[in-house]
Amino acid sequence: MECELCFEEFNRCERLPKVLQKCGHTFCETCVSQLVKQNELSCPYCRYKISIGKEEYPPNNFALLHAMDNIRDEREGKGISKYYKPNYQVSQSMISSNSKKRDIYEYI
User: Fold this and answer.
1) CA dist., res. 51 & res. 38, Å (int)
2) Radius of gyration of the chain (CA)
3) Could you count the other beta carbons within 10 Å of the beta carbon of residue 46?
4) 58: closest CA among 93, 87, 34?
5) pLDDT tens per residue, range 16-69
6) DSSP of 57-76, one letter per residue?
7) How far apart are CA 29 and CA 35, in angstroms?
8) What is the rounded distance in angstroms from the CA atom of residue 105 to the CA atom of residue 83?
9) Pairing of strands 17-19, 49-51
10) Dist CA 70 CA 75 (whole Å)
11) In whole angstroms, what is the distance from residue 76 CA to residue 79 CA?
């Protein structure tokens, strides 16, 4: 699962998923820290204004972290790789000039 702003995968370090409690949207810690200006944050999706203080910094989205762990464990248990690769061959005509093979595997 990835941050919808930077498209980097969430992790347990600098890309911790942070939930904006007022609107419920989730972004990585790196992006949230860049969004905070003068103790205020405006959600990039819904533009909801959120006051941010030291005590009010958006919390980790533990539900998302737990779901990510469960998906990883289930895939490892079944021997499935990170990106699902189908048994059939992906032809060049299926790939647009600005996409990568990996993009296709993620959505099949």
Assistant:
1) 9
2) 17
3) 11
4) 34
5) 999 998 899 999 999 998 988 888 889 999 999 988 876 678 899 999 999 988
6) SPPB-HHHHHHHHHHHHHHH
7) 10
8) 6
9) unpaired
10) 9
11) 5
